[in-house]
Structures are given as C-alpha cells and as structure tokens.
C-alpha cells in the first residue's frame, strides 16, 4: 500500500517544505521552490543498503580490521589533470566536473577515456545528452585510437546503467551529465533536486563498494555555480570547475575540493582543433604581449595551489569626471583595489580620492591572494605618477593598513619561477628572507614599508 506525498524542494539547497514558499528559509534565495510528488510505501523500511556488484553487503567492522589497500593512482598522459587531482586519478573516487556549456567538459573526459584505455583500463562512457554517433565523431576528431577499451552507452535510466556496470565491470565510469540521468525509485522530473541527489547517491555507492572511479559532469547556473543542491558538492570526493572565456582559447581547470590532494590547484589547457592541449608554461603566455616601458604595469608571482604563475597586473588611473570616483576590477577583488588605494593615499601621499581606477589581471586569469597587494600598489602608483616600471622586475608581498609589507608563503618557489623566466630583480617582504636560498641570476630585495618599495620600483 502506497500513498503520494506532494512537497516543495528548494533547487538551491534542497530544503523541503510541505507548502510553497517565495523565499527559502534555509539559504535565503527567492523563487527556488519546485513542486515534486513522491510515492511512499507503508512497508518501506528506509533507504537501500550498499551492495557491491558481487552481491556482498557492507557490514560494520572494527577499524583495526579494515584492510586499507593503498592502490596506486592512475597516471594518465595529461600532467595538468594529474596535478589538479592531487597526483593522478584515485581508484574508487567520485569526481564532479562543472563548467559553462561548450567549455570543453565532454572533450576533456573523452580524451581522458582514451588515455585511460592506453593504460589498459576499461572505460564506460555514459552519455545522456548525445547519441553514440556524436561521441564517435568527436572521438575521430580527437584521434583517439584505443577505442577497443572505451564503451559508449547512450542511456538516461540508472537501472540500465547499473546493469551495464555489472556486466562490463569497468575500471572507470563517466556520466555526462548527472542532470540527464533518471532514478526509477524517485518520482520526480529529470534534473530535479531529488533526481540529482538520488543519482549521485547511487553513483557514490557504486564507486565506493566496487572501487570504480566515477566522473560525473554537472551543469552550472547563470551565476557559474553547479546546478542542483549544495549537498551534491558535499557528497563527491573532488569538485573541479572548468573555466574559460569564450573570446580566448585558454581553459582553466580549478580544484575547489579534493579529499586526495591540495585544493585550489590550477591546470591550464588550450582549445585546439584536435582537442584540449596542455599549456606547459602559462607564465610565458600571460606575459608575451606585455609592452615595454608601459606605465601602470607590474608583474606579480602568484600561487595557484602549488604552482607559481607570473601575471601582469595593469592599472589605469584617470581624473574622475563625476563626483564619486569609480573603482573597476577585472580578475582581482574590487574591494582589495579600494583598500590598496586607501593605503597608498594615507601612507604614500598619493591623492587618489578624485581619480578613477581600472585594475586588471591580464590574460583572463582570476587571482585572489594577499601576495598581490604590493604589485597592485606599484601598478597603481606607476599609472598615477606616469613612471614605467622595470620590465625585468617583479613584486610579491602583502600590505598592511599601516603601510608595512608583510610576509607571504612559498617565497622561494616564487623567486625560482621569476629567475627561470629571466627576471633580474624581485621585491619581497624583508621578513621572508630568513633562511632563504637565492638562485643565481636574480637579485632579491627585501622591503619593510610601502614607501620604501615605491622608491625602489619607481625611481624619479
């Protein structure tokens, strides 16, 4: 005997309400509730228990009796993806990849399928958005030759997917995308909060009980966040965001959650005719179009995870036409720009309150770390004073509100990256020089105050 229950679910956080609400009391978002019907059996005892493909049920056991198998990671050809994942693909992990439509998610995963097949792994590519012919056409365009180990399954029913996994026993399963999959036990529309949560729970059980690595593709909202409830990101082991500008060929793969490695790692790819190509030295790309003797330009050595990247920060300071001066930022935090300009006015004597400021991180990259402060201040002062910086000099340091230059982490890695690209001098916090080994060919200058740094960077 079963009965039907009508409930309203928030599409943003998954909050369940018996009646429609204009604003979610849990996350505060407006107009996110959708109506769902759910069949509830009086004899149902609860959720399903995890059962492996071999029929073995998961039972409680002492932690001392757990056989922790240190399985080696799958080291594929893509060094960028290996680093973002923390050193390779972990067997039995659940990885979620999100990004804008057409950014290259399916292309990347199809290339990963070919590279895994070269390692002798069996891959099941489940596509709910494309036909098998479309996947084959992309495979031919990408010149994937190891097709004998890659199986394509155009299906949206999770029952059929589970049966296919039980028959093939693959090492890796790719689901493109999770919003197109349907769980038969959940009585709601495809792509709804209940369906997405149910499908992800099912895939998580398959991954953990059978040691199968599962990649799932997730759609994103207009704001750039993953569509569906936030619990989706909490359920998976790794969350990767595929970012990029439609007007540029470069794509950034960023890890925002990783249970098996460092977060905030960054991989850089270039979209070419034959798929996504790795960018071995992104610093050269970000600096290759820099003008010589240009004012308002300063180079910073930023850290993206464990990777140092040299990026040009550009600033344009112009007199304000209207009453309130504008503060515009691209690739950096706008509030940080306002803070740096306030410190420059108070501690360095620059009259910036009646000046419009436009600050940009060149190359389309997004940066957010305290080590940008010194380079940002130098670029703003350079544009205001109309004095160009040394093109072979870079700047690293955090600024305090009293005008001091504070220490930053991984200073030695930053200096080595600057020396490798031919920079002859770098300004760093003086307190970061303790126990530092300076590489040959670069001068490391320690500064303690912003005023001292500006005198060295912009000699009059």
TrEMBL record:
Residue span of motif RadA KNRFG motif: 257-261
Annotated region (Lon-protease-like), positions in chain: 356-460
Key words of the record: ATP-binding, DNA damage, DNA repair, DNA-binding, Hydrolase, Metal-binding, Nucleotide-binding, Stress response, Zinc, Zinc-finger
Residues annotated as domain RecA family profile: 70-220
Binding-site list for ATP: 99-106
Superkingdom of the organism of origin: Bacteria
Pfam families: AAA_25, ChlI, Zn_ribbon_LapB
Stored InterPro entries: AAA+_ATPase, DNA_repair_RadA, P-loop_NTPase, RecA_ATP-bd, Ribosomal_Su5_D2-typ_SF, Ribsml_uS5_D2-typ_fold_subgr, Rubredoxin_2
Family recorded in the similarity comment: Belongs to the RecA family. RadA subfamily.
Role description: DNA-dependent ATPase involved in processing of recombination intermediates, plays a role in repairing DNA breaks. Stimulates the branch migration of RecA-mediated strand transfer reactions, allowing the 3' invading strand to extend heteroduplex DNA faster. Binds ssDNA in the presence of ADP but not other nucleotides, has ATPase activity that is stimulated by ssDNA and various branched DNA structures, but inhibited by SSB. Does not have RecA's homology-searching function. Plays a role in repairing double-strand DNA breaks, probably involving stabilizing or processing branched DNA or blocked replication forks.
Recorded domain comment: The middle region has homology to RecA with ATPase motifs including the RadA KNRFG motif, while the C-terminus is homologous to Lon protease.
Classification via NCBIfam families: sms
PANTHER family: DNA REPAIR PROTEIN RADA, DNA REPAIR PROTEIN RADA-LIKE PROTEIN
Protein known as: DNA repair protein RadA
The species this protein was found in: Fructilactobacillus ixorae
Name of the gene encoding the protein in the UniProt record: radA
